[in-house]
Amino acid sequence: MPIVLMCGIAVAIGLNGRPIERAAVERMAKSLLHRGPDDGGVYLDGSVGLGFRRLSILDLSDAGHQPMVSEDGQYVLVFNGEIFNYIELRTELRQLGYQFRSSGDSEVLLAAYRQWGADCLPKLNGMWAFVIYDRRHRRLFGSRDRFGVKPLYYSRNDDIVQFASEIKALRASGYRQNDINWRTAARFLLEGRLDGQVETFYEGIRQIPPGSGFEVELDGTWRLWSFWSLETLPPTVSDNPAAAFADLFEDSVRIRMRSDVPVGVCLSGGLDSTAIICAAARHRSDYADGGSEFIQAFCYMDKQFDESKYIADTLAQTGAQLRQLETSPSELWSDLRKVLWFQDEPVHTMTAVVGYQLMRLAASQGIRVVLNGQGADETIGGYSSYFQDYWVARDVLHDGSWRKLARALYRGGESLSFMGNV
What we know:
Helix content is about 35%, strand content about 20%. The chain has helices at about 20-30, 85-95, 105-115, 165-170, 180-190, 240-255, 270-280, 310-320, 330-345, 350-365, 375-380, 385-400, 400-410, and strands at about 5, 10-15, 40-45, 50-55, 70, 75-85, 125-135, 140-145, 155, 160-165, 205, 210-215, 220-225, 265, 295-300, 320-325, 370. Helix 2 (about 85-95) packs across helix 3, helix 7 packs parallel to helix 8 and helix 9 crosses helix 10.
């Protein structure tokens, strides 16, 4: 269940004593202004520069300002995302002697790293991309969340390493050329494939893999590791898997309702978004802003698939207020250029443009946090094609028919398909 909110981080590191220009970090941060219009800052320490743009969600005061410096002055943090279990972690850290000046999650993340180092990562429940600069040891530590919800791009050459929330920030610094990655472009043009994990459309610009941590020394030493992956999860056994799933789902919505600003929901007539908004309505009192606001729902009506009856039933059940997106082909084409600028790379379909228009509608109503049901169909077999893929793959792998799997893949996915590509 994605939750839509944004800040922007920008980091530049000069290796082997090369100084970083403040103007370069300022250009990087300025290119991310659309991600964080509320606040921003730059921290410079010789060979290390950290920039930030803030969209205020938790602790709207100046206490949430970034780059954030730890109480002892040793660590400096830039962080995009949200740690959903920050309240529980803060309680644990207080018992260990930590004190907090703010009520948000950024300071909790900084204290968690001070206490546990890289071992803090498995403790985090959330979505994040962050970099922490250790002034004493002249080292940077960072991470990207388990599923890569939050983006974190990087580039490396002989004397500069950069990290940023968007590709355009890496290019804005002046340290990075704009060479096209023709291998990625060819895969997209010939096969319709977007890697979405590591490779980008720009030579020398990559993504930190989901579920990863990394360390960079100022002499150029680099260490990247995986702290979590689906492949290494132990199997779980439950006497009542449906009830276990329902409990986990309910809690996942509840914990995402923690916010100092109102939370909205993208709504269709489908099961996924309907379940989310119903759970959100049950946990409305968990809003950090007091829970007095009704839930605002945002939808796009497709005349070919009229789901208005189901949406009306959901609104009656939850008391949510509906804001409906109205658009046209000409508006979609007009906004496509804007979407491509934000994305820095191609998109598969015009659905991305509709999503952009929905988020713009939500923002116009003062909504900064939006829950939606994207990804549920792929995860739990919402369409027959996904469900069929699961059963075929399960049967093939369970009985050890590796040759059968290889033949299926070689045929281009006649038996196994994922979004039309294998």
